[in-house]
Design a protein that fits this description.
The chain is an alpha/beta fold and 583 residues long. The chain folds into four domains: 88 residues, Gyrase A, domain 2 (2-Layer Sandwich), CATH 3.30.1360; 227 residues, HUPs (Rossmann fold); 72 residues; 117 residues, Orthogonal Bundle (Isoleucyl-tRNA Synthetase, Domain 1). Helices cover 51% and strands 12% of the residues. The strands form four sheets. It has a five-stranded parallel beta sheet, sandwiched between helices. It has a four-stranded antiparallel beta sheet with strand order 1-2-4-3. A three-stranded antiparallel beta sheet has the order 8-9-10. The longest helix is centred in the middle third of the chain and has 42 residues.
Length: 583
Amino acid sequence: MKTQIEGLLAAALEALGDQLPQDVAPEARVERTRDPRHGDFATNVALALAKPAGRNPRELAQLVVANLPASELVDEVSIAGPGFINFRLSKTAFEQEVRAVLERGADYGRSASGAGRSVIVEFVSANPTGPLHVGHGRHAAYGASVANLLAATGHEVHREYYVNDAGRQMDILAASVWLRYLEALGESFAFPANGYRGGYVQPIADQLVAQEHDRLRRPAAEVFRDLPPDAPEGDQDEYIDAVVARMRELLGEEDYRKVHALGLQEILADIRDDLAEFGVTFDRWFSERSLTELGLVAECIDRLQSDGHVYERDGALWFRASELGDEKDRVVVRDNGQTTYIASDIAYHLGKRQRGHDLLLDILGADHHGYVARVRAGLEAMGEPGDSLEVRLVQFAVLYRGGEKVQMSTRSGEFVTLRELREEVGNDAARLFYVLRSNDQHLDFDLELAKSRSNENPVYYIQYAHARVRSVFRQATEKGLGWTPAAGASGLALLDSAHERALMASLGRYPEMVELAAANRAPQNIVHYLRELAQEFHTWYNAETFLVDDAGVRAGRLALAEATRQVIANGLALVGVGAPDSM
């Protein structure tokens, strides 16, 4: 409906022609009114054009109104205040929108506003060092929902998971697997404080035993001889790094890589399965190691050097990031010749641009706030537009069980996995609860509420509205009362209760909500809208009888109910939640 009103306004502005300044391109933009007493939509176009046109805004507003084409969609146009133009829609407009829902079905609310724009959405990208926990779940639900919204508005969307398969954390995982392997073969020692201690490591170690038997076994005394002290007496980071180095020394690079690869393979497979069961899939799982194999890191460093964006200091190569908006310069090559993760980040994002993506949308943890400036600086140094990078930070999700906060730590193993959460509350509740609040706000995940079958549980309340409509249609079938969309469309004209008018008006807001949620990367807008729509439906359901004797009224009410069900289903699909036929 908003688009149609904008079309009428655009026609009026075009009709004014020479009466408007030629060097000003007026935008026919309308917004929902905050107060329904002022109508349904309003525009400030007359106020915006008054100064460049040298006209009184109310006088200009009168000219615009006088040139509006006649339309059955509009009951009244009025001028308010200093020159706002208000539009009150006709009942026909609302009926027409309900018919549009019935005609377009699952496509209702989708648009082509983002057509021709390619977006790569990178999200989750958790280190493959353990199962996903409830914090990762929020990243998954948010990222998948944002990607769905962008696709619904016509963007070409590519979903990607960046696999951190090269780096210190993976070395620590490999060492942890090997140490559990040694324990399984009878070696006895104190497990490193900074090793991965979760129970998920043991099955991987058992696989290593099954594959290699005792071929990789080394005496504990040999493994830990002359190592620096572990915590609490010593430095736990220094100690675990020494354990990794000893492992590589004792096993040799080839066998070390076997253990490393087994840990990566098993945990990554678990992450893939977990996310797939959660309804989150990716177009590509991008390996960090492939950046080196593809030569992207070397290409970036060569370009930085040739373009004068780096300098040498203390044997290391420094990127002049501070000259491109970062808070300080960054090391890209250490004094030992090893490239840093910053070099990999720049290379990865350059690769995204080289693959033809216009917008690089990264969804990261709240602790990555410093990441934006340095990667943007790297892109600009590569000759790419800095604003091609957009980063959305996701705050922590805190799980509460019985009013008590549950602690999470991947390394200690004392955490609740995403799989455990899903098994307890179900995928639908998890997906919806994760996007109840804005990504930049902390989320308290209430397990008891998520499992409850009450109106206070938003997923239950919204899904129940969908199931209720299905139930009404089953009852109609049982009573031999046929219904067709055509009959329903005709019957809409017979609906005139306040509840029905309110529900029709709410349905018409859905396309605008999709556009707004996509533009603001705000899936919570869809959830709040669906909750309000469900409330209006439940209120109507409790106030009216649907299967009345009057065939016309009955057909109209079934049409409005079916349109409501369709919009609820469409909205739930955007946030990855099912629409059950019965509950």
